[in-house]
Amino acid sequence: MSQIMKNNKNYPRPQFFRKEWQNLNGEWEFVFDDQNVGKKSKWFDSFPGNQKITVPFTYETKASGVGEEAFHPCVWYKSSISIDKRYKDQKKKILHFEGADYLTEVWVNGQFVGRHEGGYSRFSFDVTNFLLTDSENSLVVRVEDSISTFQPRGKQRWLDENFGCWYVQTTGIWKTVWLEYLEDETHLGCIKLTPEIDNHSLLMGYEMEGVNVGEDLTLVAKVSFKDQPIREVSLKVNRSHDQVKIKIDHEFEAWKVKFWSPENPNLYDLELLLYKGERKIDHVYSYFGMRKISIENGKVLLNNTPIYQKLILDQGYWDETHLTPPSEEALIKDIDSIIAMGYNGVRKHQKIEDERFLYWCDVKGLFVWSEMASAYEFGDKAIEKFTNEWIEVVKQNYNHPSIVTWVPFNESWGISAIFVNAQQQFFTESVYNLTKAIDPMRPVIVNDGWEHTVSDIITLHDYEADGDNLLDRYEVKESILQNKIPFNQHKYAFAKGYSYKGQPVIISEYGGIAFKSEQGWGYGAQVSSIEDFLSRFQKVTDSIKKLDWVSGYCYTQITDVQQEINGFLKENREPKMELNKIKEINDKRI
């Protein structure tokens, strides 16, 4: 992997890197607007707050400096920013928000810039014409949240107190805010990287911003591996979007294509240079992995070879920062812990994680199931809000080789009548087809856990604590997959009108074992010792491994989360036992 990214710690968008950027995180002014009077009172001109908050931590967290968990429907932020002197002559200045929950509006120097709806996707505003280059600038942000169950909210509670497996809400800016400086109005907008390992090629789609008719534009793409040049392609840019196929194999035997896998997470560097005539006007660094995910004969294949997925569920919460990672080192530590326990993948549950997490999964070779945050009520509003944001998420994270599965729905949340309701079934089918239209190369799991409609993988959730009972329940494949018997919470594998088509099957939630405590809960009876924990964990895991028609499993979960205390680690990441004990059980062959 190129030293460019390794030497630019905390860069928020590692697969589309430019050197000219400015981090805006830190201490901002802050105020609650419970009566929703801020816009009428023009707080974007005269900010009333005297409270401080540390961005990007939300007011509900200790790390924010506020630490109030009660719900407030509207919050305002203000920061004074100065343009980095090195970049003040750049023609374009783009303001990026990696994530703000939920409806965000932005003013620069009292002028309205734009708005974005959605809590989990990245968004950007061109603020070139609003910024003053030689003096301080006022940046004011208003974020409106709600407790609506039509809104994709994931694990954020909508009641006053935590309940079940729902936790303190996340309101406002919760990911990095930053400025990017561009040399010219004409520049690369985005790229779409599709590895084609069977013909040793990379299909690169690109979109340009600010292209004018008749401009003499040339795009140069340079591919390298471990700093050794592999291929260089130069093409004339005649329109705002196009695609090009880049051959990856090399004339020398030693440079055959290096595939990406957990064992060998090989990454190619991609350098993109845009020229207007002889002048370089844009320079972007990226990377990609040559890997293929496919399904054949009821198996998931990685690079045309069957894989057994050993996943762990990860909700991505920290005790003092909640959904926001406290640091890049914290993300790396979680990934290292997962690998140390013998897992080859993570099911990122009900959260679109910081892109630095995906970057390190790419680098370290960890599979990721990317799962959208659920709404909890069905209706036209929920359909619109969910679909719009899901499209943004899939497009934004498409290029990461670590993402091997998309999971738009979980356990019928937000589609509670899907077992019999045709309208909700149609919705899931449409989201499946929409996802496949954007990304035909990855499997899509439509309703993780049960009551599947159309789905590339059939997933089952079962928190049976007794390994023998678990084995007995699933020993006859047809009983489950033909809806003859229910399983977890009396659920069936398929919604009515749908049937098994030979897809791979994965037990994608099980375990959830908790130690005895009065402070929280786990699944099944709580255990009193490490020995009891490991014995139960081994028996249920071994039982799943004995099912030759099952292609993998996902254990719940890596860490405790607030009142849910069924993690291998505490919420502060203190291990409850030696991690190699977990690895021994995961590595055991049956």
From TrEMBL:
Residues 294-585 form the Glycoside hydrolase family 2 catalytic domain. Belongs to the glycosyl hydrolase 2 family. Pfam families: Glyco_hydro_2 (PF00703), Glyco_hydro_2_C (PF02836), Glyco_hydro_2_N (PF02837). One of its GO terms (molecular function) is hydrolase activity, hydrolyzing O-glycosyl compounds. PANTHER family: BETA-GALACTOSIDASE (PTHR42732), HYDROLASE (PTHR42732:SF3). Keywords: Glycosidase, Hydrolase. InterPro entries: Beta-gal/glucu_dom_sf, Galactose-bd-like_sf, GH, GH2_Domain-Containing, Glyco_hydro_2_cat, Glyco_hydro_2_N, Ig-like_fold, Ig-like_GH2. One of its GO terms (biological process) is carbohydrate metabolic process. This is Glycoside hydrolase family 2. Residues 218-291 form the Glycoside hydrolase family 2 immunoglobulin-like beta-sandwich domain. It comes from Metabacillus arenae. It comes from the Bacteria.
